[in-house]
């Protein structure tokens, strides 16, 4: 249970971890889909390869675009690539980094599908059973067309192969080639990934890579914070509009009640907190102008002004000028 909590905390820690988790889930879904998929080869010479090619390519294409769709890096990359320059210059290295991360994660599920199909071998048998030389096997005595016979090899229930070991021999032969191709692709991908991790630091500047990764994470976090701030502002703005509507409909009423001072202070603090969350944006035109400015003129990456703004310090002194308490 503790390990499961640690795994969930890892996948919820940041957007990159969430994207990794989604890609792993898609890969597991692709395996589940293949195992539950009822594969029925047409067993006809003109359709076997076409059907097998469709099963090998169409689901991976769907899984690839699904991986692109659910990947948060896709939206961040397109926003950074398509936005106007404004006060902030574009960094092509960041766009390239986000594109690379998106492609790598989106390719995981399609590659899992292709590897599973190759290691299983049924699709390969359906596609290439016709290519096997039937006369290399002994005890072959069929009076029908040889191509039609080889096309029916994937169909184990066919009466032609009743009480015959020929179909099993051909299927075993083609499945061996399919598994060899699958293991070779897997080995190539592992070696390619290992070589990339080992060789990349020798040719790339690690400091540049850290900068690119930092600013790519920054873009993601910035967009998240902007969306969260917009949601908070929209909630407070809507509440203000509703309260204002009800107060406009209410008739003036005078109530004479005792007024403790702490209620006044509480209400003032609450109203100040609301005003702070509205940031002075209290009209529709102001909201539209703010959103328009955010898109067309992103703020420059300089927070010096807000980091060094003046702070009010309070010092308490007695009648003789001696300091009793100070914030300085």
TrEMBL record:
The protein's matches in InterPro entries, at most eight in alphabetical order, are given as: CALHM
Q: Which family does it belong to?
A: Belongs to the CALHM family.
Q: What is its main location?
A: membrane
List the PANTHER family hit by this protein, alphabetically.
CALCIUM HOMEOSTASIS MODULATOR PROTEIN, CALCIUM HOMEOSTASIS MODULATOR PROTEIN 3
> Where does the record place a coiled coil?
none
| Name under which the protein is recorded | Calcium homeostasis modulator 3
- In which compartments does the protein localize? Membrane
The Gene Ontology CC terms held by the record are: plasma membrane
Upper lineage is: Eukaryota, Metazoa, Chordata, Craniata, Vertebrata
Bilayer topology: Multi-pass membrane protein
Any idea which UniProt keywords this protein has?
A: Ion channel, Ion transport, Membrane, Transmembrane, Transmembrane helix, Transport
Which Gene Ontology MF annotations are present? monoatomic cation channel activity
What gene does this protein come from?
Answer: CALHM3
GO BP of this protein: ATP export
Keyword NAD belongs to the record: no
Q: Which residues cross the membrane?
A: 21-37, 49-70, 180-199
């Amino acid at each position: 249970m503790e390990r499961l909590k640690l795994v969930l905390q890892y996948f919820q820690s940041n957007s990159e971890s969430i994207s990794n988790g989604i890609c792993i889930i898609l890969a597991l879904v692709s395996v589940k889909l293949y195992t539950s998929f009822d594969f029925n080869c047409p067993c006809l010479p003109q359709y076997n390869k076409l059907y097998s090619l469709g099963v090998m390519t169409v689901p991976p294409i769907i899984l690839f675009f699904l991986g692109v769709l659910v990947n948060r890096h896709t939206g961040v990359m397109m926003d950074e690539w398509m936005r106007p320059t404004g006060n902030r210059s574009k960094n092509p290295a960041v766009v390239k980094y986000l594109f690379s991360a998106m492609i790598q994660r989106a390719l995981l599920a399609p590659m899992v599908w292709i590897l599973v199909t190759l290691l299983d071998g049924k699709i390969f048998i359906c596609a290439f059973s016709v290519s096997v030389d039937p006369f290399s096997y002994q005890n072959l005595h069929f009076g029908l067309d040889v191509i039609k016979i080889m096309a029916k090899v994937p169909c184990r229930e066919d009466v032609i192969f009743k009480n015959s070991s020929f179909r099993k021999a051909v299927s075993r032969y083609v499945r061996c080639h399919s598994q060899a191709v699958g293991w070779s692709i897997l080995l190539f991908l592992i070696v390619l990934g290992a070589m990339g991790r080992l060789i990349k630091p020798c040719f790339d500047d690690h400091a540049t890579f850290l900068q690119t990764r930092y600013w790519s994470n920054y873009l993601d976090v910035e967009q998240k914070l902007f969306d969260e701030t917009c949601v908070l502002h929209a909630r407070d703005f809507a509440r203000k509009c509703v309260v204002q509507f009800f107060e406009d409909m209410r008739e003036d009423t005078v109530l004479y009640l005792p007024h403790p001072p702490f209620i006044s202070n509480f209400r003032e603090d609450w109203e100040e907190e609301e005003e702070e969350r509205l940031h002075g944006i209290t009209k529709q035109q102001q909201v539209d102008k703010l959103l328009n400015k955010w898109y067309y003129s992103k703020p420059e990456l300089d927070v010096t002004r807000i980091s060094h703004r003046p702070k009010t310090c309070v010092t308490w002194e007695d009648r003789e000028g001696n300091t009793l308490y100070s914030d300085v």
